[in-house]
Design a protein that fits this description.
single chain; about 110 residues; mainly beta; 4-stranded antiparallel beta sheet; about 0% helix
């Protein structure tokens, strides 16, 4: 069993930055692809970014060039650096595994004011 705990959300003005962190329990973290989803009110949950155990990354078109995903396997942690934030980035952000195990964090709120 893997537990995921996110932190780093908050309120920021448009153009600002936030860094989300997700700490995972369990020994399989370093083996699996991890990433971030988000869900805004009234919208479906969407994939934001993911990273393989070897460090290969994938991003949604809407965040390319602004967000950076990274991981530290020694710390069982995955990060999402979010720069040049826009009001449309406002959502609950969820850390999750992208390897099909079904592990999800509880979510952290990101609010970007205009």
């Amino acid at each position: 069993q893997v537990q995921l705990v996110e932190s780093g959300g908050g309120l920021v003005q448009a153009g600002g930055s936030l860094r989300l962190s997700c700490v995972a329990s369990g020994n399989i973290f370093r083996l699996i692809r991890m990433g971030w989803y988000r869900q805004a009110p009234g919208n479906q949950r969407e994939s934001v970014a993911s990273i393989t155990s070897g460090g290969s990354t994938n991003y949604a078109d809407s965040v390319k060039g602004r967000f950076t995903i990274s991981r530290d396997n020694a710390k069982n942690t995955v990060y999402l650096q979010m720069n040049r934030l826009k009001p449309e980035d406002t959502a609950v952000y969820y850390c999750a595994d992208y390897s099909g195990y079904g592990y999800w964090g509880q979510g952290t709120q990101v609010t970007v004011s205009s």
